[in-house]
Amino acid sequence: MHYEHGTTVFHRLDPRSKLVGQFGFAIAAFGHTETAVLVVLTLLAGLMLALARLSPVRVLRTYWFALVLLGLAPLFAMFQPSSPWIVPERALSSVVAGYQVILVLLVAAVYVRTTPVRDTRGAIQRHVPGRVGQILGVGIALVFRFFPLVLRDVAQSRLAIRAREGDRLSTRAQIQHLSLISLQRALSRGETLSLALRARCLAWNPTLPRLRFSPLDYVVLAVGVGVGLLSFV
């Protein structure tokens, strides 16, 4: 998932209001397990996806690896080292926790999809003073740009292994091959990134983009704070 230019409502929002809204949503999602609250948060996440013109199927496909882990968690939760060996009731808490994570991932995808990296860096450096803010801004900018490339390299490595009939190998051998190739590509990407930063004379304190709240930003800010306060009710 990465930023894509658009004209949706979320594209026009200030990154600071979106960050507050996202954090408020996450606090509410992780702070409540009641069915009614989760249903409301699900509807709210669906509304955000619709306003951002982002398909939930696309988001879930992007985070497929996390979904696999979340799907395995309830299975492991049911087992215990003594009799009775399987307790189905213990899986319920893992299912609820996994669903909470999925809701947060959906909302986070809306932010990434509609917010330029430069605006995120500007929002952080404006409100976190000094060198700490500069380091955070540069770090987040690099992660947002570098991580999608690493994921793309992993996907291409998997296709290359399959094209060479690597899928006939054992699962352990496939994992070893994929890990080695992905690590080599990541290190190569890192060297290229380091050279590019030096060639462009990396600025720790560049001219930040102009950020301004619109009336709609105040609405999003109020909703984010209100939803976050649900955890304390």
Summarize this, please?
72% of the residues lie in helices and 0% in strands.
Overview of this structure, please?
The protein is globular. The protein is an all-alpha fold and 233 residues long. The chain has helices spanning 15-31, 35-51, 56-62, 64-78, 91-114, 117-127, 130-163, 171-199, 215-228. The protein has nine helices and no strands. It has two domains: 1-116 and 215-233, no CATH class; 123-208, no CATH class.
Query: What coarse outline follows from CA principal-axis ratios?
Result: globular
* Secondary structure tally: strands: 0
Considering DSSP H and I runs of 4 or more, what fraction of the residues is helical?
Answer: over 70%
What is the mean predicted local confidence, pLDDT? 78
Instruction: Tell me the major beta sheet.
Output: none
Roughly how many Å is the radius of gyration?
21 Å
The stretches of 5 or more residues where confidence is low (pLDDT under 50) are none
- Measured between the Cα atoms of the first and last residue, the distance is 34 Å
Order of helical and strand elements: HHHHHHHHH
SS element count, helices: 9
Question: Could you say how many structural domains there are in total?
Answer: 2
Query: What would you call the structural class?
Result: mainly alpha
Strand content: under 5%
